[in-house]
Design brief:
Layout (H helix, E strand, L loop, with lengths): L1 H20 L18 E9 L4 E4 L2 E4 L5 E3 L3 E5 L5 E8 L5 E10 L5 E4 L3 E4 L2 E6 L13 E5 L16 H11 L3 E8 L5 E6 L5 H9 L6 E9 L5 E6 L5 E6 L4 H14 L6 E6 L4 E6 L5 E7 L4 E7 L2 E4 L7 E3 L3 E5 L7 E4 L7 H7 L6 E2 L3 E5 L4 E6 L4 E9 L5 E7 L2 E9 L2 E9 L4 E7 L9 E6 L3
Parallel strand pairs: 9-11, 25-27
Antiparallel strand pairs: 1-4, 1-6, 2-3, 2-5, 5-8, 6-7, 7-10, 8-9, 10-19, 11-18, 12-13, 12-14, 15-16, 15-17, 18-21, 19-20, 20-23, 21-22, 23-24, 26-33, 27-32, 28-31, 28-33, 29-30, 29-32
Helix pairs in contact: 1-2
Length: about 450
């Protein structure tokens, strides 16, 4: 009982810490004009550690397949204790798909946070795919802001949670009233407006767009900043490779943005998007430059953030590169913070990372670990199953009932498990290590007894 109580306290504490990291958005009023800012994100796949949560305002609840992030105050929380995957797709206010899918993953005790509309603090890696543009506008098309994650800070306070309570209350008090939100709005002809306020930053620029006769007025970026940050960089990125940038503190950035926006409009810049980056942390904005399919993978590095372009063309903005770094398929960009030199190099995009294998498994007809794979009878079954790692320990549980059947698991040509013909149920394990993240599972049904039945589940390695 005591252990369970401590575990519940620990979980609440982790949520409290996550709250300090997550932007404190207020409830926003949105319309279907917000074409590039998604209204909601649906969790359609979870693998690995299932202790995912969603913050709705000040409330927390479990995140399961089918759960929605809604509006700008909902945040997905992936814990850092184990390897976890969550896949999301984004929709507009009518429920129409907006051509953006994202896979977030964690490992090495680093938290991952994703909050609407277009911001992530990655604990390990993100896979971001924008579909072929077609005739529709894609969610977060003007960029997703990605911050390099930090290690779970609760590890050192597990044994005495009460020691952290005063600090927690201090952090909560400090975070109150320290946020500003910003928004940029476009009309169909490319003319733009911006807004900065404590809440509802899109309201005024939307009204300005509409009263100026703008057609198809749409909010294209929305995010937040802390007024306590001392080293902020405002970037207005426009069409035809125009950009306007200046630095300021959290207390002056509103005036800096207003001045920059006026400058951009004086020069008749079109299709301008506003971003604000903090030079004191490792963060970038990544956006698709191709109207075709774009598929990018980002990953934490010891010094910053790595961006791989698998398909399409990427533009990566940072405080030191406000014009953006353009990357083509097979190019890797290492952003190493504001004070170190960055590096662009080639990589073999024919070699799939584990994260990419997981993301593409369903489209390739593969089953995923942690799911009920198959049940059958005398005919048996053989299939490849996608794992979430290329080393570790796999566990498989089976039920052969009364009639003996045979279960085999092979990895890169090596037999990991062979039960021979057995009846009854069991759960067995095997260690593996290699290059692939896929195993072959084969069930050989009993040839002599046609009424035989069996089923199994292969669990993701942790």
């Amino acid at each position: 009982m005591i252990s369970r109580k401590l575990k519940q306290q620990h979980r609440r504490l982790m949520y409290a810490i996550a709250t300090l990291i997550i932007p404190l958005y207020t409830v926003a009023t949105t319309t279907d004009s917000y074409a590039n800012v998604p209204e909601k994100g649906e969790i359609y796949q979870i693998l690995g550690n299932n202790e995912l949560s969603i913050r709705r305002g000040s409330n927390y609840g479990p995140a399961v397949v089918g759960t929605f992030l809604q509006k700008v105050y909902d945040t997905l929380f992936l814990p850092g204790n184990g390897k976890s995957f969550a896949q999301l797709r984004f929709q507009d206010v009518t429920g129409k798909d907006m051509g953006l899918q994202l896979q977030a993953s964690t490992k090495n005790k680093q938290l991952t946070l994703y909050y609407l509309p277009c911001t992530a603090k990655q604990g390990d890696s993100l896979l971001i795919e924008w579909a072929n543009q077609g005739t529709g506008k894609r969610a977060c098309e003007y960029g997703i802001r990605i911050q390099r994650g930090v290690r779970n800070q609760t590890k050192s306070i597990d044994k005495n949670l009460s020691d952290f309570e005063p600090a927690k209350q201090l952090f909560i008090a400090q975070s109150s009233g320290t946020k500003l939100q910003y928004c940029s709005v476009l009309a169909a002809n490319g003319r733009g407006w911006s807004g900065v306020s404590a809440n509802e930053p899109c309201e005024e620029p939307m009204q300005q767009c509409q009263t100026s006769g703008g057609k198809e007025c749409a909010a294209i970026t929305r995010d937040e900043l802390s007024v306590k940050n001392e080293n902020l960089t405002a970037i207005i990125k426009c069409a035809d490779n125009q950009s306007f940038t200046d630095k300021g503190s959290g207390s002056t950035i509103k005036d800096v943005i207003a001045k920059l926006w006026e400058q951009s409009q004086t020069q008749k810049a079109k299709f301008c998007a506003l971003h604000v980056l903090n030079s004191d942390i490792e963060e970038v904005v990544i956006a698709p430059e191709s109207k075709d399919k774009n598929l990018f993978q980002t990953r934490n590095t010891p010094n910053g953030i790595q961006v791989d372009v698998i398909a399409g063309i990427a533009s990566v903005l940072s405080a030191k590169n406000p014009q953006g770094v353009t990357l083509k398929p097979g190019q890797r960009y290492n952003y190493n913070g504001e004070n170190q030199e960055d590096k662009t190099e080639k990589f073999d995009n024919q070699i799939e990372s584990i994260e990419l294998q997981v993301y593409q498994a369903t489209s390739k007809g593969l089953k995923l670990c942690d799911q009920e794979q198959v049940s059958g009878g005398q005919q048996g079954d053989s299939r490849e199953i996608q794992l979430t790692a290329n080393e570790g320990q796999i566990n498989i549980s089976y039920e052969m009932y009364q009639v003996p059947d045979r279960l085999k698991v092979t990895y890169e040509g090596q037999t990991l498990i062979d039960t021979d013909f057995v009846s009854g149920s069991n759960k067995i394990s095997a260690k593996f290590k290699g290059n692939s993240g896929r195993v072959k599972v084969e069930v050989i049904g009993n040839k002599d007894i046609s009424s035989t039945e069996w089923k199994y589940t292969l669990y993701c390695p942790q």
